[in-house]
Each structure stands twice: as structure tokens, then as C-alpha cells.
Amino acid sequence: LATATQLFGDRGYSGTSLELIANRVGVKKASLLYRFPSKEALRREVIGALLSHWRDALPGLVRAGTTGEGRFEAIVGEVVRFFREDPARGRLLVRETLDHPTYVQQVLAQLFTPLMGLVTDYIRRGQREGLVFGDLEFIARCDPVFAVGQIPRIGERHKIAALQGRKWAHE
To answer: What is the reported pTM?
Structure first.
């Protein structure tokens, strides 16, 4: 999977043959096809392996921080660590987003849907504290990826409001 991740990230799906992957791994193409029945099956396994880390790690990271800023720092720290550990992962993610945007959107929605309960609770808490717009919960239900992206901004708004000596109120 590491070799396929690197090659799909560097060359894209279309530019990477099963023969090339097999040669780099040091096996015959038939052996690769025994484990992965098609190039598409290998691609899905590579993407699945990339995202399984986040499926496992994100709930703990979201729960870990006691503040919006703490959650943001935990998530960003893990993102940096994960992609620094293997830069091919980042190239693959960018490449897949450009080459297969619909597929990536579906996979990310599946990844973030289980977290929506945590996000919704966080949004409600922010609304009670006057830190979050009233309609963000509706947006979270319609577009979970967008809503998860708003979590760090909630912390930023709180920090700005504190510096200004007031709460950030919704309109």
C-alpha cells in the first residue's frame, strides 16, 4: 500500500500501472491481482488506509481539547505529524481531490458523519455562549465537511471577542 500511495500520489491513478506497482514492490503483477482484484480495488484500499487513520483519530482529537483552541491545536498537530511522516499521503490526497472530486467528497462525508454528533454538541454549546451563529447547526447537517472546518473558527472568534472585551454574538 505504501508503494501504491507513493505512485498514485506522484503519477496519479491514470499514470500508474499495476505492472509498475508490482515491479516496485518486487512481485509479479499476477500476485498483486491475487490480493487486489483490480487497479480500482487497490486504489480504494489505498484511500481507505489513508482515511482509516482519521476515522480512528478524529473522535479522540475532537473530545481531547477542552477549548476550541485546544481542539484546533490537537487536530492541526496530528495533521502535520501524519503528513510529515509520509509526504506521499499529502500528494495522494491532493491528487485524488483533483482527479476524483465526487469520490473524495463522498468518502469525506462518510468519514465526518459519525463526528457530527460531537460537532453539533460543540455548536450548541457555542450558541449558548453566544459564540456561534444560530444557523450553523443547520449548515452542519447539510454539509458536515464545512461544519467541521468551522470548529477552529469558533475558537478564533472567541479569542477575538475576548480581546475586544465582549462575547461574539450571533445575529
So the answer is: 0.61
